[in-house]
Amino acid sequence: MINGVTGSAVLVTGGSRGLGAPVVRLVEKAGGRPYVLDRQPPAGHVPWVRCDLSDTRAAERATRQLAEEAGGLDGVVTAAGTDVPGRLADIAAETWERVVTVDLFATAAVVRAALPYLQRVHGSIVTVASTLGVKAVSDATAYCAAKFGVVGFTRALAAEMAGEVDVTLLVPGGMRTAFFDDRDDRYKPGADAVLNDPANVAAAVLFALSQPPGCAVRELVVCADRETSYP
Fold first, then answer.
1. Residue closest to 157 by CA, chosen among 216, 87, 101
2. What contacts 24+ positions apart, CB below 8 Å, involve 195-203?
């Protein structure tokens, strides 16, 4: 990828909300061309494909479709994520497995489908893990399993793609998004919780995507200055 994102086609999963939405806005503001995979449309007139990322084969097809529409890809940001907290014995197997599929398997599926396009231009990948991908907590077995997996997947991918595609692992702390809205009250952040603005995290994503040739940002931890889940 050239220095900066001007003119670059960047695929963002989950680009309609959460962290993905400000990533899309910043890419567009910087002169790039965002493309979105999500279950609902992004703001504005951003090209997108409706996709339920729990269907990983569909995620691969949608990635290739957008890549062809864009005339190739320069960057991929896997910002989509989900979670249903609770004790392992209390969560339905289908729900537990969906969390792992969306957060981990779909990340790999989208990256796999995008790699041929990225390799042609020495593009960039930013995967989104979590501080709960490096620190485990109770009632989060699915989310921790998935995000620990994203950490391992991304570090291995960076080694595999060295010199061909730049790979960045993003480890964000809690953010002020709708991510917590559908949870039981006991799993929602308290009134005194210190959460980061997702726009701050999106700026870090843009920084990783904007590195000049020969420079790769391998890992970024971005969180509120009083984040309790890191380190």
1. 216
2. 195/224, 196/172, 196/222, 196/223, 196/224, 196/227, 198/18, 198/19, 198/21, 198/22, 199/22, 199/26, 201/19, 201/22, 201/170, 201/172, 201/175, 202/19, 202/22, 202/23, 202/25, 202/26, 203/26
- The owner of tokens 């400000």 is 22
**Which regions of 51-108 does DSSP assign to beta strands (E)?**
75-78
pLDDT in tens, 94-117: 999 999 999 999 999 999 999 999
H/E run at residue 219: strand 219-222
Among candidates 128, 50, 134, which has minimal Cα distance to 82? 128
As a whole number of angstroms, the distance between CA 211 and CA 208 comes to 6
Mean pLDDT rounded to a whole number for the chain: 96
Pick the more confident residue, 108 or 191: 108
Phi, psi of 187 (to 5 degrees): -105, 10
Here the tokens at position 187 are: 């799993």
